[in-house]
């Protein structure tokens, strides 16, 4: 497959058989969606998508990976291993040191599937769109209310909570915030693989419409590679964050990013925000980044 991709890349402008045609069409579809977004949404700072920044007709490896229908049909495991490359890349993709609208591994979620301007990795978007289509047929509406957040975004969330807390002891203060919010550099939301769906309240998913949506996600999410990583800690004997019924992770990519994270990130690197000095004492890498359900 990989060899075919590279062969196709070289010969792209000439001709490369049906597989390449399919990939090319998928790329066009994404470009078109992004262009439509551009026209429909007012230009407001970070939220702009500069689809024109990418030369038309360019196929990058990510689009090729998500282009195959097999990716969606077979769910997790169908994505080729990603090569995160050098330290610069690790900085970018593991700790959110980037601007999503300028990175061609990311795409904006169409407005009919999101509550505001939200970016995720293209592979995540592709799988979510297929899942949302299936949900709609079953009378379930899935809307992404949060997706990729970069370092600065997470820092602003964290520091707002840090500075408004009345807990004096820094370790206890961090622990309290860490019930539901991540320290910058340790959030799965940096990766573009994790999304929050429909509501940020567990109670919403416990009755009526919310319960139906949650039950649908539990049953069908895994078919598309999505898993609720922050499950009930009592049932699953899991450490770290409290249960989040809204937070779903696209595991084919996220599990690779997690193992890369564990290999490459050290406490020396977790810095640059208030309270970062307690990261090591709280063992945030093992307890929080590593404290997920057994999603495989
Ligand atoms: Zn979340």
UniProtKB/TrEMBL annotation:
GO terms for biological process: proteolysis. InterPro entries: DD-CPase-like, VanY-like_core_dom, Zn_M74/Hedgehog-like. One of its GO terms (molecular function) is peptidase activity. Residues 118-252 form the D-alanyl-D-alanine carboxypeptidase-like core domain. SUPFAM superfamilies: Hedgehog/DD-peptidase (SSF55166). It holds the Pfam family VanY. PROSITE patterns: PROKAR_LIPOPROTEIN. CDD domains: DD-carboxypeptidase_like (cd14847). This is M15 family metallopeptidase. The lineage of its organism: Bacteria, Pseudomonadati, Bacteroidota, Flavobacteriia, Flavobacteriales.
